[in-house]
Write a structure and sequence with these properties.
Blueprint: E1 33-40, E2 46-53
Antiparallel strand pairs: 1-2
Amino acid sequence: QKVKTLVRENLDAGNHTIHWHGKDDNGSSVGSGVYFYKMSDDGKYTSTKKMILLK
């Protein structure tokens, strides 16, 4: 299930840093665990990776 949308707008080409503070779209803290994040550019390129959140 989707937990949080971090960026909705298109970004210019280049390096970017996005911070996630362990909260869902409702502002509630999420638990420790493995989370997957997906990056895409209007469907032409999609990359899904995983991260571990430890509290």
